[in-house]
Design goal:
This protein folds into two domains: about 5-115 and about 355-360, Enolase-like, N-terminal domain (Enolase-like, domain 1); about 120-345, TIM Barrel, CATH 3.20.20.120. Helix content is about 40%, strand content about 20%. It has 13 helices and 13 strands. It has helices at about 55-70, 75-85, 95-115, 120-125, 145-155, 170-185, 200-210, 230-240, 250-260, 270-275, 275-290, 300-310, 355-360; strands at about 5-20, 25-40, 45, 130-135, 160-165, 190-195, 220, 245, 265, 295, 315-320, 335-340, 340-345. Strands 4, 5, 6, 7, 8, 9, 10, 11, 12 and 13 form a ten-stranded mixed beta sheet that branches. Strands 1-2-3 form a three-stranded antiparallel beta sheet. The longest helix is centred in the N-terminal third of the chain and has 21 residues, at about 95-115. The chain is globular. Bound molecules: magnesium ion (MG). Magnesium ion binds near residues 221 and 222.
């Protein structure tokens, strides 16, 4: 079996309303498909982490790797990963690992299709269903405490047993009030997480964490800049709220730092960013050796397989349609929440079936 072609399709569509977290405002959502065709007619579909607003960058980086992939056996994921990553001159982290990730996920899709098995089975098959949480609670124009409470109430109706909200985009005391409202809306038995998206300085994060400890938070995500390892460790030691991070960390080497320095309590690798399935599984194993749990960031369609495969998969992040008009339309099969959990798909490979008809108007590269 040989790789015949590797290409990328980038789609961008506007959100219903711009959403803001602790540091950034988003007006659009992006999907980066990596398609790997083989001489056997099996097609691998992967997802890459991209750059919003600059859709031409991903395909340009992929063009650099493409010539080395054509003619290779797509089942040799370990060798192909290292061949793409070895010339570190193109970058050990950042957009390079995001594109390697897209190719690697497509290779695992091919492997699953050839083996006639879903990827979560192929990787370990620890479980066929995982706990999940609905991510949201963004800042939006005209969205006050009442609207935030309504969003969380809707999450409960959809079967959520855990919810996440943004913090760090308002004053500390305003955010404490927002957390109070969410806790009172969902009641005492639902997990509540907060995510600052790197917005705080470490001393602000400690002040905030101490003020919200009484609301029984499941975790405090990305309190400070990802490179501030000492700051993260200081927060972890200063509060009883578990600290989570990793969506801006790259490769097993980055996670080794987070683990060995005991910077955080929960690790959040994103397979689309950190280097694909191959690298994610190494991070999960490294985490197991130090008794860390994994709660991956984003892309539920890919991460359902990875959380279900491993013994230290804590919970799956799930995005719904509160602001994204394409939720439920991007894929032919949308993962559904039932009693706070999501079932892994039985389809062979990653089970990613893009709805190309619906996506067509939004193709940008
Ligand atoms: Mg986050």
């Amino acid at each position: 079996m040989k790789i015949k072609d590797v290409r990328m399709e980038v789609y961008e569509w506007p959100l219903k309303t711009p959403i803001r977290n602790g540091l950034y405002t988003y007006t659009h959502s992006q999907l980066n498909l990596v398609l790997v065709d083989t001489d056997d007619g099996v097609q691998g579909i992967g997802l890459a982490g991209g750059i919003l607003g600059t859709p031409e960058v991903g395909p340009a980086i992929l063009a650099h790797f493409r010539k080395g992939l054509i003619g290779q056996d797509p089942l040799d994921h370990e060798r192909l990963w290292h061949e793409m990553w070895r010339p570190k001159l193109v970058g050990r982290r950042g957009i390079t690992t995001r594109i390697i990730a897209g190719v690697d996920i497509a290779l695992w899709d091919i492997k699953g299709k050839v083996a006639r098995m879903p990827v979560y089975k192929l990787l370990g098959g620890y479980s066929n269903r995982v706990d999940t949480y609905i991510a949201g609670g963004y800042y939006e124009e005209g969205k006050g405490l009442k609207e935030l409470a309504a969003e969380m109430a809707r999450n409960m109706e959809l079967g959520a047993r855990a919810v996440k909200m943004k913090v760090g985009g308002a004053s500390i005391n305003e955010d404490v009030e927002r957390v109070r409202v969410v806790r009172e809306t969902v009641g005492p038995n639902i997990k509540v997480m907060v995510d600052a998206n790197n917005a705080y300085r470490h001393y602000e994060a400690i002040e905030f964490a101490r003020k919200v400890e009484k609301y029984d938070l499941f975790w405090f995500e990305e309190p400070v800049e990802p490179d501030d390892y000492e700051g993260q460790a200081a927060i972890t030691h200063a509060t009883s709220v578990p600290v989570a991070a990793g969506e801006n960390e790259y490769t097993r080497y980055g996670f080794k730092e987070l683990i060995n320095k005991r910077c955080v309590d929960i690790l959040q690798p994103d397979a689309l960013i950190t280097g694909g399935v191959t690298e994610f599984m190494k991070i999960a194993a490294l985490a197991q050796a130090s008794d860390f749990d994994i709660a991956p960031h984003g892309s539920q369609e890919v991460h359902i397989h990875l959380v279900a495969a491993i013994p230290n998969g804590l919970i799956l992040e799930y995005y719904r349609d509160s602001t994204n008009p394409m939720h439920g339309k991007v894929w032919k099969n949308t993962l559904q929440i039932k009693d706070g959990q999501v079932y892994a798909p039985d389809r062979h490979g990653m089970g990613l079936e893009p709805n190309f008809e619906a996506l067509k108007p939004y193709r940008v590269a």
